[in-house]
Amino acid sequence: MLKVINALLAIVGGVLGSLLLFYVMNKVVERLPRKWEERVKPYVFFGPAVLLIGFFLIYPAIRTIVFSFANSDSTSFIGLTNYTDLLGSGDFVSGALLNTLLWMIVVPALTVIFGLAVAVLADRLRPRAEKFTKSLIFLPMAISLVGASTIWKYVYESRPEGTPQVGLLNAILDKFGIAPVAWLQLSQAHANSLLLMVILIWAQVGFSMVLLSAAVKGVPEDTIEAGRIDGASEKRIFLSIVVPQIWATVITVFITVLIIVMKIFDIIYVMTGGNFNTDVIGMRFFTELFTNGNNGYAAAIVVMLMIAIVPVMLYQVRNFRRQEAQR
Amino acid sequence: MSGRTLTKATAIAGAVAVLTSGCLSSGDKTSSGDKSGGTAKATVEIMFGFGGDQAAGFKESLEPWAKTNGITIKYVSAPDTFQTLIRSRVAGNNPPDIGIFPQPGLLKDLVKQNKLQPLDDVLDMAKLQSSIVPGFLDSTTVGDKHYGAPVDINVKSLVFYNKPAFTAAGYEIPTTIDELMALSDKIKASGTAPWCIGLESGPASGWPGTDWIEELVLKQAGPDVYDKWVAGETKFEDPAIKAAFDTYAKIALTKGNVFGGAKSIVSSSFQTAANPMFTTPPGCFLHKQGNFVTQKGFLSEAIRAKIDTNLGVFAFPKGAFDTVEGGGDSAALFTKGDANVTKVLKAITEDPTFGGAWAGPSDRGFISPHKDFDVSKYGNETTRSIAKIAYTTSGIRFDASDSMPAQVGNGSFWKGMIAFTSGQQDEATTLKKIDESWPKS
């Protein structure tokens, strides 16, 4: 009970406190001569927010970059050793780095394709069936990736041969008399990584579908009519008329999912802990920081990830700006 | 971004950078939590790495004492995640008052960072030396100072078996490793897999495999090689250690030796791996594990109800040497100079009767580290006989992977066992990788 009261007090106090702060600062600024008031007022209003962002976002980011040049307990600088060690270690490059690249290639593409497929096909159904289908596909977005991983653990689970199979896939194999397969240990051709990617795709398809469905519905009917009159097949209409007009949305979805994929950690941590060659950058960072207590390596890994993500994010921002300008 | 906005943004970032960047951690030359003497907190916080029944037993043993002494204890249970939590608590400058570490390696890591207090002036070391099973206090010693004292111990050099089935089949308890291998072959010849082995343990998967290697090193190469191995002087690629891996491979990776096949070992949870021993007909006959396998959640309740008739146990047979491997949880001190914190620490480490409520009547996986603990308190004969092994042995060594630096003991060694057992990595690569991961400092 006490915790609930504390929480309510925090919410009320926080909101009222902020209002009070801005009110007081506004009154103070109003007392200044006109010219100064015009100049200072904007800073007064966005100042607190910028300071907070600076403190909780920029300061830690800069400190992390600094730590990436220091040793494992951050007591002395060692220059670029962390970076050369990591990039020189076959384990990191052909393990975590390669796997992350694989994820980046496969997941956004498949998410877009499946989302588009559902959007287009659901479009053809009657309204009620369409709503129902879309809700089903969207449902996985409501749970955390850890929750999703727990669910899929029951699909991939394997028990020793002869004991009852709890995992869905192995139970099906069992019915056909085939021996159970340890799915998450199949590292040949990265099969287990692909199985893990299925989980992320499953969770993100809803997002992709919703955006692409809106885009598909936004394609002017006359362009499609024109195509039909000219005698184009459905497939041709789709590829040459619909897709170019929704391309901006496709890019948006692709980039958003790409950013999520680059940071992925929870799925791998819950399902395999990074074993069986499923390690990715996010997981490796966790291992370096918490298991090995090596601040230097952890910081270097995360800085490299940041360097890789920043261009993608800048592209995303520019994309948004362009879309806003078109409205 | 427009040129002006970009310049402004860079200027702000630059200002922040200049103000903060030069600073690295000061290295914390003075111990943190140094509340100079004379305080007596009303609430003492203890963080430990066990959960379930063990946590319940611990609380039941400490609460009556706490009530009598007017101290409130805050219990923080962190099974599986202890190392992550304790590191973030320490890094956030908010450690508990007392930490009960399942791994001396982790404890020694924190000693290196000057986060823990030496116990030589806090506890009666002479009394502890004579009362506690020899070998445990050494595991948490750095230089010549003691930083930990055991709260509970477990014995790992044990092989469990299904007593009725074993006797019915006419098998005899082996006393040497050669006899053990012969027995294993005999069982295999009769058509059943001799061993049940499980390595899965969530984020800690792989540790039961390390127990196997440590056992074989101790019994085949001896305690001196073992100690050098823990200290990093003897490498994993050394022939003595390689021999242990070879024996492990012979037992676990030979076709038909393990229930479910070698492939299923890494996905078989260590908690339930022994259960096939008790099916009719038995799926396997032997299971090497620590004594904690007798607590709830491991063996089925039906078996546990009549544990002394159902479950048999013998000490892992000797090789050229006879040293016993054990583990346990050691209490370490974060808060210096607080009267109540010290009192609590003394209660859980110095008192040879501590843990009476934990030991029985129901088995909660507890064995007291004190040689003079009243063995009648243990809930069943199985635990009593295991405790006697610990109390009468002349040489016990602490679990090696728990004593090695964390990135090896909790990292590459665990993962190495998983990769090697699942057939993903061959022995030579496994040994090389673990050696490479050893911290340079």
Structural description of this entry:
The complex is a heterodimer of chains A (327) and B (441). In chain A, helix 1 (2-30) crosses helix 2 (34-67), helix 4 runs antiparallel to helix 10 (234-262) and helix 8 crosses helix 10 (234-262). Chain A is 77% helix and 0% strand. Chain A has 13 helices and no strands. Chain A has helices spanning 2-30, 34-67, 81-88, 90-123, 127-138, 145-156, 168-175, 191-218, 221-229, 234-262, 266-271, 281-291, 295-326. Chain A folds into 2 domains: 2-67; 82-146 and 190-326, MetI-like (MetI-like fold), CATH 1.10.3720. Chain B folds into 2 domains: 43-153 and 327-391, 3-Layer(aba) Sandwich (D-Maltodextrin-Binding Protein, domain 2); 158-325 and 400-436, D-Maltodextrin-Binding Protein, domain 2 (3-Layer(aba) Sandwich), CATH 3.40.190.10. Chain B has 19 helices and 11 strands. In chain B, the strands form 3 sheets. In chain B, strands 1, 2, 3, 6, 10 and 11 form a 6-stranded mixed β-sheet that branches. In chain B, strands 8-7-9 form a 3-stranded antiparallel β-sheet. A two-stranded antiparallel ribbon of chain B has the order 4-5. In chain B, strand 1 (43-48), helix 2 and strand 2 (72-77) form a beta-alpha-beta unit. In chain B, helix 9 packs across helix 18 (406-421) and helix 18 packs antiparallel against helix 19 (427-436). The two termini of chain B are 46 Å apart. Classes of the chains: A mainly alpha (327), B alpha/beta (441). The A-B interface holds A 50, 54, 58-59, 62-63, 66-67, 70, 72-77, 91, 157-163, 180, 182, 184-185, 187, 269, 273-277, 287, 290-294 and B 12-13, 16-17, 20-21, 24-27, 83-84, 87-88, 109, 113, 202-203, 205-206, 259-261, 263-264, 266-268, 276, 283, 406-407, 410-411, 415, 418-419, 422, 424, 433, 439, 441.
